[in-house]
Amino acid sequence: MNQNDVKWLVELTRLPTVSGREENVIAWVTRWVERRKDLRLQSDEDGNLLISQKRRSSKRPLFVTAHLDHPGFLVTASKGPRTSVVEFRGGVKEAYFEDAALHFFVGGRTESARLVSFDHKTSIGLVRSRVHELPVGTLGRWAFAERSLGVRGNSLHAPGCDDLAGVAAALSVIDRARKGKALGHVTVLLTRAEEVGFVGALAACANGSIRDDARLICIETSRSFAESPVGGGPIVRVGDAISVFSPELTNRITSIAREKGGDLVWQRKLMPGGVCEATAFSANGYESTCICLPLGNYHNMGNLDEVEAGTGQAKPKPEVISLSDHEGLIDLLMLTARHLDEEQEDLAARLHKRFEERKHFLQPRPTP
């Protein structure tokens, strides 16, 4: 795997970020773009990031999207010596909050704390920090030992793969596209506040950030199941828990993977374990689908299958993805960017041709 891809992936997935407070990731991305003079970085009126190429293209734009946030804690008030009120933003089952060990990030230091109470209905709790006061506005997440993080063989264990691994993949794609012939139509859209109801994606639909003729491929990191394993390759995601994505675009990517992918390992699945921004874009009239990475310890919920079955202990753990899946994701996105606009006989035409070739099987008609 390209070493820059791994470097960007590791760095981004360690950054603290919370819905509505994505500034650490935004600062990292801003520095990354500034080192590439042929790219342009814009922020829309709601703070979503658009990374485009300065060269012109006559092709329909292809937006590769990912979101900048991950479930986590935000300090909202002080309640006395070393005790603070926190809000949790994101979706995590109630059992994982009990007496949880947390890390908060103040300037350049990490402060340890413990969650002493939590109301799952309001997502509000109290934390007690070990040494220092926690200023209002401080970001926090589950506490992970340093030895539990990092690359191990083909796996990355990180505080927040969802969706900072997607951000890393999107940057790798546009870094390749800017050097490639006839790939000037590739743009990256990085959205905010996905974990609280894809609010940034909905804002991008409302504020005119996306051209009406754009195609959108959302990168997600989606909960892995037995039939969609980590290490089984990137997944052409047909739909999510509430919708099916734009079928023409989904089918086109499937065809490209089959016809152009060579020995690329990939999967095609529904992935019903959550809701994706492709649903928001499709519902707003855009041609949109998703390619995702299968994710272990979804939203840092360790032993999730056992917890849901009532047989396991709820323990926060680092999220896990496969490096080969991540590399395959980048490769599949690049294949799509290169071949999406090539002429191809559509499905209806292929089926009509099949009927004309085989309709003789219907003759003679059976006698009742």
Topology pattern, helix = H, strand = E: HHEEEEEEEEEEEHEHEEHEHEEHEEHH
Class of the largest domain, according to the CATH hierarchy? Alpha Beta
User: Kindly, what is the distance between the CA atoms of the first and last residues, rounded to a whole number of angstroms?
Assistant: 64 Å
How is the main sheet built?
8 strands, mixed
Shape: globular
Count up the helices. Answer: 9
Low confidence ranges:
none
SS-based class = alpha+beta
What's the average pLDDT? 95
Number of domains: 2
- What CATH architecture of the largest domain would you give? 3-Layer(aba) Sandwich
Note the quaternary state here.
single chain
CA radius of gyration: 22 Å
Query: What is the CATH third-level topology name of the largest domain?
Result: Aminopeptidase
Q: Give the DSSP E fraction (strand runs of 2 or more residues).
A: 25-35%
Full CATH superfamily name of the largest domain:
Zn peptidases
Helix fraction bin: 25-40%
Number of strands: 19
Spatial strand arrangement across the major sheet: 1-2-12-3-13-16-14-15
